[in-house]
Specification:
Elements: H1 2-21, E1 28-33, E2 36-42, H2 55-65, H3 72-75, E3 81-86, H4 90-97, E4 104-109, H5 124-130, E5 137-139, H6 144-157, H7 160-175
Parallel strand pairs: 3-4, 4-5
Antiparallel strand pairs: 1-2, 1-3
Helix pairs in contact: 1-6
Bound molecules: zinc ion.
Residues 54, 56, 88-89, 91-92 line the site of zinc ion.
Amino acid sequence: MSENHEHFMALALEQARAEARRGGRPVCALIVRNGKIVGQGLNSVIADINPNAHAEINAIRNACAKLDTPDFHAVSLSGSTLYTTLEPCPMCFSTTILAAKIKRVVLGARHARVGRKDLGDYSVESFLAFIKHNDVEIVTGVREAECEELRLEWLQSLSDEQVRLELLRSRASHDQGGENTR
Ligand SMILES: [Zn+2]
């Protein structure tokens, strides 16, 4: 199983690196069920001008679009594993990953270790404890160093224009009562 985790996280990392080379945000999420990738997503917040378009949400939407039933709640993505190169934020984790009945979340970089300040003491574990929910397995430490490195490299490479866009988006997000999606 851990070999599978390494394999799928490596694929996610590959896509995240390719996205960074294209000038996008280096976050990729994959949904895997029965050993097969059934959904994938990149962060498209800027491209789609959509503060909700995080990689995890895009991956789940991509997988759900392929379900052959119109009843999302009847099938959902139960039994699936979500791989993500960056720890899911509270929005992705609470309203999408848990709602989609994802069984296991395998995450790479952690917010606390890449200097993210706007989420305070948030972690997926603290959030699960807060809502008293233990139906989802959390797997950490899979290619963690590479995921952290990619994140930190991207943060250091941000141009003035990117920073300007970040600030504009952050202000817009706060004005809407949303969260800073970086
Ligand atoms: Zn998110």
